Each structure stands twice: as structure tokens, then as C-alpha cells.
Amino acid sequence: PLSGFYRPDGKTPLSGIVKAEMSVTGSGENVTALIGSLAGAASIDIENFTIHGFDENALPRMLQATDLAVDQKPNGETLDSRRFAVIAEEATGPGHLALGNVHLDAAIGGGKVRIAPLDLARARAVLKGEVQLDLVTLALGGSGTLAFIHATDREAGLLLEIHFELDGNYDAPRIRLDPS
């Protein structure tokens, strides 16, 4: 299970059952050099993949909190992106994004694993982007968008995209949200 394998800060941000196939080659005079030289490909299947802290039902809460914040602004001032980022983070934090069974392909080169394109969709949310892990330093990198589709306005195409940046390392990932 993914929840037992990946637990930064004792939390479980991801869950599911992982099955992977890899074909890699590498050479080096020590472990660091060997890992840094790895090249190849991987195929990853995750059953019942869930991302905790990204709530696919967050859009109504975001719209309600945004309306309230705008109503409290004097003289028709607009809501700045920093305040909206706080609203988005609070709304997307609880709950989860249950993606079901997911297949990912990864490229491995220079000791780095890269999963791209990442394109995971549900009825009310779409997660797109790319993720990279440096196998030597365990540094994380990535970026993408989390788009929320308002259920009652699906035909009209009303959606809200929140851009994210991923960095930090395997044990202490950092995600920054930017709604602009």
C-alpha cells in the first residue's frame, strides 16, 4: 500500500495499491554514482489512488468564501490573489480526490524519475501536470493545475483552475497554490 510506503511528517497524503514494472540500467563506482546514472522507464499502476488534501468538491466552498470576502470589501475593491490563495488552500485542504485506478508512465534519466504528462480526471476535478524526483538527493519538483468543475454548470464549462508548484524533498514536500 502507498500509505505505508510514503508518509512525510507522519501524514498519509497518498493512498492506493502500487504495482510497478521498471527497466533501468546504470553504472558507477559507488552507490551515489550508480543511482545518478540510472536510465530507463517505468510503468506504474495504482489501484484506488487517492490524494488526501485535494478535495474535488471544494469549488462550491471556494465560491462561497470568495463571495463573502468580496462582499466585505469596501467601495467595490477586488479580491487580491494572496487572499484568494488562502481561500483556495482552506477549501481544498479537507477531503480527498479519489482517482480510482490510475496508470502512469515514468521516464528515468540521469538518476531522475519524471512522470509527465500527469492527467487525472474525475467528474468535478482534473489534476494535470508533471512530477519529478531526483533519486540521489530525493528532491521533488513539479507543477500543474487543479481544475474544479462546478457540478451544476458542467454544460456551461464553468471551472476554476488553481496552479500548483511542488518542491522540497521526499520527506518534506511543499505545495504552493496560485489561483492567478
Assign a percent range to the helix content: 10-25%
Range of strand content:
over 45%
Strand order of the largest sheet: 1-2-3-4-5-6-7-8
Largest sheet descriptor: 8 strands, antiparallel
Q: What is the tally of beta strands? A: 8
Q: Determine Rg (CA atoms, Å).
A: 19 Å
User: What are the segments in which pLDDT stays under 50 over at least 5 consecutive residues?
Assistant: none
The structure class reads alpha+beta
Q: Roughly what is the average pLDDT, rounded to an integer?
A: 82
Instruction: Please state the overall shape, judged from the principal axes of the Cα atoms.
Output: elongated
Tell me the distance between the termini.
Answer: 35 Å
Our count of helices gives 4
Which H/E pattern describes the elements?
HEHEHHEEEEEE
Tell me what you see in this structure.
The protein is built from 4 helices and 8 strands; from the N terminus they run H-E-H-E-H-H-E-E-E-E-E-E. It has 180 residues and is of the alpha+beta class. It has an 8-stranded antiparallel β-sheet with strand order 1-2-3-4-5-6-7-8. It is elongated.
